[in-house]
Amino acid sequence: MEICCKINGEERKLCFEPHERLLHVLRRHGYYEVKDGCSEGHCGVCTVLVDGKPVKSCLMFAAQAEGKEITTARGLGSPESPHPIQQAFADEGAVQCGFCTPAMILCAHHLLQRVPDPSDKEIRRALDGVLCRCTGYQKIIKAVKTAAQRIGGEAK
Amino acid sequence: MEFLRPKTVEEAVELLDHPHALPVAGGTAFPGKPNAERLVDLTSLELNYVEERPDGFHVGATTTIAELERSPVAEMAGGYIRQACEFLADTPLRNMITVGGNIACGHLWAHLPPVLMTLGARTIIAGKRKRELTVYEVVSAGLQRGELIQEVIIPKLGGRGVFKKFALTRTDYAAVSVAVYWDELGRRVAVGGLVRPQRLGDLEGQIDITPELLDRAVDELNPVPHPHFDPEYRKHVLKVLLQRAIAEVEH
Ligand SMILES: Cc1cc2nc3c(=O)[nH]c(=O)nc-3n(C[C@H](O)[C@H](O)[C@H](O)COP(=O)(O)OP(=O)(O)OC[C@H]3O[C@@H](n4cnc5c(N)ncnc54)[C@H](O)[C@@H]3O)c2cc1C
Ligand code: FES
Ligand code: FES
Fold first, then answer.
1. In terms of C-beta density within 10 A (0-12 exposed, 13-18 middle, 19 or more buried), how is residue B181 classed?
2. A interface test, pick of B91, B96, B109, B171 with most A CB neighbours within 10 Å
3. Which of the 8 DSSP states describes residue B233?
4. Would you write out chain B's pLDDT as a tens digit for each of its 251 residues?
5. Domain B161-250 in CATH: superfamily?
6. In the CATH scheme, what is the code of domain A84-155?
């Protein structure tokens, strides 16, 4: 089957089998920043934003993305012009192997959109769907705080 | 296989009248290759709402847990429903899992059924014929082919509720869950996690909970095996959580 949706601001047509999940369809269309960790909803590295909200793309049926706006980490910024959250992750050493990073950044983005100055507790809860096997989370939490300060500073 | 996206409940009911059709909502309880010839998506039916009416809160079946958690019904009875949503799976999953799917999935660990059972919530079932079932009836007997949960009606109650779960981590599947609601009419108790969500009538009403009564009510249960915790341990945890929840709700 075929659907139309917007991915990182671009109109896209996606073709797939009716049972396929969004994760596998996105990767087949070249969005490799969306990672495949477990394919069963546990690890969260497949997280993308659908209409601005994080969801696990390994469970969402691709057919349900019809007419939606999908954002992957690539949609937030590029190596030449990184988003403040991406920059903060790099600066704070919040990236080791990097497998969880795109998902962490999207979850952080969703949080900072709603809560510009989050507490530790709010950050932990916002990231509770993504596993990191490298960093021990402390630096990731720090990076989200740094990003919040920088974005807050820019807004002032 | 086909994946269909009807726009109205009537259309969905018609499409579900097929020997190998299944409704899909959040999609979080489906295996990689669903065992169905036809999937009927409910998320485009506009069943995404929480409305306060004289007879209670009407919650559309495809309202997500994240939306439910931020709606006024979550704050009723001392934030009873909010407590059940808070550590229900994790943030991205709460944006997917729906109220109807959490009731219909039949998972022992589902948080909403025990809470809704103690609140006396009813479900509106769409099918060839519209009918009303309690949450307990949906969880214990299931729906007939071609039927779907359209709406859940939660009575407005002024008492207090406490939900507690025991799991490997806060966001993991509940290995034991308890839901206790209390008001001047008495106490209502439901459990899940180790057995199919159900009320524990022995612990309800105005009675004092003695250790003997608690033992009797819990020892009758037959826990479904769990990969990490043995049945006796889970029964012990259940007694502890019940005691704590009852003490909290009544003080
Ligand atoms: C990793 C993980 C952790 C989880 N942890 C928890 C937890 O701690 N607590 C908890 O409560 N839940 C938890 N869940 C969610 C739970 O296990 C189910 O996956 C979820 O409740 C299903 O809801 P859904 O909207 O995604 O339904 P779907 O997956 O779309 O459907 C589930 C079943 O219900 C049927 N169905 C769906 N909607 C309707 C309807 N309106 N009418 C009739 N039938 C319907 C479908 O046909 C299907 O058989 C977890 C899920 C995952 C993947
Ligand atoms: S790939 Fe692990 S949650 Fe989706
Ligand atoms: S950086 Fe390796 S999994 Fe998080």
1. buried
2. B91
3. H
4. 999 999 999 999 999 999 999 999 999 999 888 999 999 999 999 999 999 999 999 999 999 999 999 999 999 999 999 999 999 999 999 999 999 999 999 999 999 999 999 999 999 999 999 999 999 999 999 999 999 999 999 999 999 999 999 999 999 999 999 999 999 999 999 999 999 999 999 999 888 999 999 999 999 999 999 999 999 999 999 999 999 999 999 87
5. CO dehydrogenase flavoprotein, C-terminal domain (3.30.390.50)
6. 1.10.150.120
